[in-house]
Automatic annotation (TrEMBL):
Residues 182-352 form the Inward rectifier potassium channel C-terminal domain. Residues 364-396 are annotated as: Disordered. Residues 37-174 form the Potassium channel inwardly rectifying transmembrane domain. PANTHER family: ATP-SENSITIVE INWARD RECTIFIER POTASSIUM CHANNEL 8 (PTHR11767:SF11), INWARD RECTIFIER POTASSIUM CHANNEL (PTHR11767). One of its GO terms (biological process) is regulation of monoatomic ion transmembrane transport. It comes from Larimichthys crocea (Large yellow croaker). InterPro entries: Ig_E-set, IRK_C, K_chnl_inward-rec_Kir, K_chnl_inward-rec_Kir6.1, K_chnl_inward-rec_Kir_cyto, Kir_TM. This is ATP-sensitive inward rectifier potassium channel 8. Belongs to the inward rectifier-type potassium channel (TC 1.A.2.1) family. The keyword Oxidoreductase does not apply. It is found in: Membrane. Its main location: membrane.
Length: 421
């Protein structure tokens, strides 16, 4: 049985009407992806399936410095104890070959005096390597083999001490320790500066010792596809900053705002406020310089994903002059304030400059209206206070009315009551 045709034409039905309605652009929610650089500066990268592991052993010193502290301390202790045991065995063999361990031998010159067991040989090995002499055990000139072992242990002990102590020193003086006092603002902002749309961050140094020759580099990392169809998962694009254009280094005496002008050469040129929130880009900030006190080059890193970029905000000032001294309030280091900023992209702003003018005019009008409302509220409050004070005066004046006083006056031998007000 055939289905009965509807009385209402198809073009006037709900599907037909919905198809003819203008559709707004739909932006997909941003898929949560891993960060390339964490907020603390560590690289979020895992190396897998490395077949040539022997390359790490060719650079032993760097491998030891890169290890964690617990592994470094274990290797440090194991190396010294192993060398002491190895040369203790050598001293025991020298004494055994010379007959010093024979209990029946009372006369004759020993290679090493008071070495009668492996324990005493181990103690003598420690004394030789760490140059501690207790006076009871000593080497004699009658045994050339013992002199040779003494020279070998001294050379080996010096090499082990130099490598291990150097490793410990480099781990304690690593450049990333100095980077802990180089701070970045938790959020980046995009606002209008000098009539141009700008991407801005704030950096600072908590120590009084300066970073010499400090430079800042910004990179945008995003997944791109070439016209040939090649997928580049980590495409790094360098972007210029105002400081890089003006000079080669920063004078990081006080917290600075690093500004990137979003122009035609910027990867942020075509992104509006809504498109930025849906994008998967990541802005990496790298601060490099030489530590003034140690002369070691240090590097601090951080990154900002789209959720950490605030559109239409500006950093609040934190440097003030107090009694002839410039003071920095680090409690407001990452604080921002909303400012009038067009929500369109920098490309649209360049094509239609009137958008910026209209936005600034609306902001000025809203600011004036808020000032009027604030002044009217203050006026009303002052009037209410004045009305309340006048009512209080009336009540106080009513309380000042003189009460009636009654007294007696004698007249004609009788008493009459007179009232005086």
């Amino acid at each position: 049985m055939l289905a009965r045709k509807s009385i209402i034409p198809e073009e006037f039905g709900l599907p037909g009407l919905a198809s003819r309605l203008p559709r707004k652009p739909v932006f997909r929610d941003r898929v949560n992806k891993a960060r390339f650089i964490a907020k603390n500066g560590s690289c979020n990268l895992a190396h897998k399936n490395i077949r040539e592991q022997g390359r790490f052993l060719q650079d032993v010193f760097t491998t030891l410095v890169d290890l964690k502290w617990r592994f470094t301390l274990v290797i440090f202790t194991t190396t010294f104890v192993s060398s002491w045991l190895l040369f203790a065995m050598s001293w025991w063999l020298v004494a055994f070959a010379h007959g010093d361990l024979d209990p029946d031998r009372s006369n004759g010159t020993h290679c090493v005096t008071e070495v009668k067991s492996f324990t005493s040989a181990f103690l003598f090995s420690i004394e030789v390597q760490v140059t501690i002499g207790f006076g009871t055990r000593m080497i004699t000139e009658q045994c050339p083999t013992a002199i040779t072992v003494l020279i070998m242990q001294n050379i080996a002990g010096l090499i082990i001490s130099a490598v291990m102590l150097g490793c410990i020193f480099m781990k304690t003086a690593q450049s990333n320790r100095r980077a802990e006092t180089l701070i970045f603002s938790r959020h980046a902002v995009i606002a209008v500066r000098n009539n141009r749309l700008c991407f801005m961050i704030r950096i600072g140094d908590l120590r009084k010792s300066m970073i010499i020759g400090a430079t800042v580099r910004l990179q945008v990392v995003r997944k791109t596809t070439t016209p040939e169809g090649e997928v580049i998962p980590i495409h790094q694009i360098d972007i210029q900053t105002e400081s890089a254009v003006a000079s080669n280094s920063l004078f990081l005496l006080a917290p600075l705002i690093i500004c990137h002008i979003i122009d035609k050469n910027s990867p942020l040129y075509d992104l509006s406020a809504m498109e930025l929130q849906c994008s998967d880009l990541e802005v990496i900030v790298i601060l490099e310089g030489v530590v003034e006190t140690t002369g070691i080059t240090t590097q601090a890193r951080t990154s900002y994903v789209s959720e950490e970029i605030q559109w239409g905000h500006r950093f609040v000032p934190i440097v003030t002059e107090e009694e002839g001294v410039y003071s920095v309030d680090y409690s407001k280091f990452g604080n921002t304030v909303k400012v009038a900023t067009p929500r369109c992209s920098a490309r649209e702003l360049d094509e239609k400059p009137s958008i910026l003018i209209q936005t600034l005019q609306k902001s000025e009008l809203s600011h004036q209206n808020s000032l009027r409302k604030r002044n009217s509220m203050r006026r009303n409050n002052s009037m209410r206070k004045g009305a309340g004070s006048s009512g209080n005066l009336r009540r106080n004046n009513s309380g000042l009315v003189m009460p009636k006083v009654q007294f007696f006056t004698p007249s004609d031998g009788s008493q009459t009551l007179n009232a005086v007000t």
